[in-house]
Specification:
2 domains; elongated; 14 strands
C-alpha cells in the first residue's frame, strides 16, 4: 500500500525503528542510514539475546529495509544524504533534539531542498520545553507519567509494565502521523513536520484513568490483595486459584455469585455495589477463587458467561490456538543469524499480513546499491569506500 514511498531512516533504539518498520511492512522503501559503528541496536539486546552474534533487538525492528552506512562527519557523506533527501518522501529521525540541525538535516534545512518531504521527529519529551535534553527511555516515561502507580498491592512499590509499551505506542502514533501527512500532501502538494514523543504517548495510553482523575479526583487507593486497576468495579483483576491464577473482568455480581456458588456475594444486589463496595466484593471473590483449581473455575465460568482468561506464561502464548490462527509468529531466514522467529506485522490487509521482502539488513549492506541508484559512477563509489565516507557490509560490528 505504500509502494513507491521512499523513507530515510535516521533511527535507533526502538521507537524510531519500530515506526519505520511499520511503513516498510506496508511496502515503503526504507533506507536506514547508519554511522560507522552501526546503529545502537546492533550491539545491544535485552535478555542478552544474540543469535550467532546478531542482536535479536536489531532483528525485531528492522525488517523490509535497506542499510547504507555513512560517516556523516565528512562533507561528502552529507552530500549523499542531501541527494537522498531530494528524492525522498519521508524522513524519520529519533536523535536527541538539535542533533539533526547540527548535522544540517533539520526540518527547515531539508524543506528548502524538498518541500514535499514529510519529516517525522520522534523524541522523548518534545522538540522544545524544560525536559528537552532529558534522556527519553521507556521506563523513565512510565515513571514520570504516572503509569507505574496504576497497579499493585496496597504496600507494593510502584510497578513498571514489563515491556516497552510506551516506545511501541509512540512508534504506532508516529507511523499514523506520517501516513496522515502523506494523505494531506496528496491534496496540498506540500510536506509537513510530524512530531511524536514518548511523554505524549505515555499519557495517551492512560487516557481513561487520567481523564477520570481530572474530572472526579484521585483514583481509588491500592488494596491488598491487589485489584486489577484503580478505577474498575469489582471483580476485576488476577485471582489466585489452588494451582495457579485466573483473570476475571467486568462480570455482574449476580452472575458471579452463581458461578462461584457463593450466596454471600449475591447479597450485593444494588447496581452501585460493584463500585461503592468494590473492596468487599473483591475480597469475597479472592477468597472463593482460592478454593478450586484453575481448570475447574474455567469450566464454571464458561457455563455461566463470566468474562475470564487464563494467566499464561510465554510458553502457553506461543502455542495458543488463536495466536497460531492469527499467524502472529513469523520465521525469518537471516544470512548471519540463521533461522529466527519474530512477531509479524500486527495489521491484516484484505485478510493478509504484509510479506517479508527483506530480512533485517547487515550494516551497510545496500550502500553500493543505493549510491548506484543516486547516479554515482563506479569509480566515485570506489573512492567513497576507500576514503571511509561510505561503508559496506563487514565494516561494522
Amino acid at each position: 500500500m505504500l509502494e513507491g514511498i521512499k523513507v530515510l531512516s535516521f533511527t535507533h533504539f526502538l521507537q524510531g525503528p519500530a515506526a519505520v518498520q511499520m511503513l516498510a511492512d506496508a511496502g515503503a522503501d526504507v533506507i536506514k542510514i547508519e554511522p560507522p559503528g552501526g546503529a545502537f541496536e546492533r550491539g545491544w539486546s535485552g535478555f542478552d539475546a544474540f543469535t550467532k552474534g546478531v542482536s535479536v533487538f536489531f532483528l525485531l525492528g528492522n525488517r523490509n529495509q535497506r542499510s547504507i552506512s555513512l560517516d556523516l562527519r565528512q562533507e561528502r557523506a552529507k552530500e549523499i544524504v542531501l541527494r537522498l533527501v531530494e528524492e525522498a518522501d519521508v524522513l524519520v529521525e529519533n536523535y536527541r533534539p538539535d542533533v539533526m540541525n547540527r548535522l544540517g538535516f533539520g526540518y527547515e534545512d531539508v524543506k528548502a531542498i524538498n518541500p514535499r518531504l514529510v519529516y517525522c521527529s520522534c523524541t522523548g519529551y518534545g522538540s522544545s520545553g524544560p525536559y528537552q535534553k532529558r534522556p527519553g527511555q521507556d521506563l523513565l516515561l512510565q515513571a514520570m507519567s504516572g503509569m507505574t502507580t496504576l497497579s499493585g498491592a496496597a504496600n507494593a512499590p510502584p510497578t513498571p509494565f514489563g515491556s516497552a509499551i510506551v516506545d511501541q505506542h509512540a512508534a504506532a502514533l508516529a507511523a499514523f502521523g506520517i501516513v496522515a501527512a502523506l494523505q494531506s500532501r496528496e491534496r496540498t502538494g506540500k510536506g509537513s513536520l510530524v512530531e511524536c514523543n514518548l511523554l505524549n504517548a505515555a499519557l495517551d495510553l492512560q487516557t481513561e484513568p487520567f481523564s477520570y482523575y481530572m474530572n472526579k479526583g484521585p483514583l481509588w487507593q491500592h488494596i491488598d490483595p491487589p485489584i486489577g486497576s484503580r478505577f474498575h468495579p469489582a471483580p476485576y483483576g488476577v485471582y489466585r486459584t489452588v494451582d495457579g491464577w485466573i483473570a476475571i473482568s467486568l462480570t455482574p455480581t449476580a452472575k458471579m455469585a452463581l458461578a462461584l456458588d457463593c450466596p454471600r456475594l449475591a447479597e450485593f444486589n444494588n447496581s452501585t455495589d460493584p463500585m461503592r463496595k468494590r473492596d468487599e466484593i473483591h475480597h469475597i471473590v479472592y477468597e472463593q477463587i482460592l478454593t478450586r483449581k484453575t481448570a475447574e473455575w474455567m469450566k464454571a465460568f464458561e457455563a455461566h458467561g463470566v468474562w475470564y482468561a487464563p494467566v499464561n506464561e510465554y510458553e502457553d502464548v506461543e502455542t495458543d490456538p488463536q495466536v497460531l490462527h492469527n499467524q502472529m509468529i513469523m520465521t525469518v531466514d537471516h544470512p548471519e543469524a540463521g533461522t529466527v522467529r519474530l512477531l509479524a506485522h500486527p495489521v491484516r490487509y484484505d485478510g493478509e499480513a504484509p510479506a517479508l521482502r527483506r530480512p533485517p539488513p547487515r550494516q551497510g549492506q545496500h550502500t553500493h546499491e543505493v549510491l548506484t541508484e543516486l547516479g554515482y559512477q563506479a569509480n566515485e563509489i570506489r573512492d567513497l569506500f576507500e576514503s571511509g565516507v561510505a561503508l559496506t557490509k563487514g565494516t561494522g560490528p
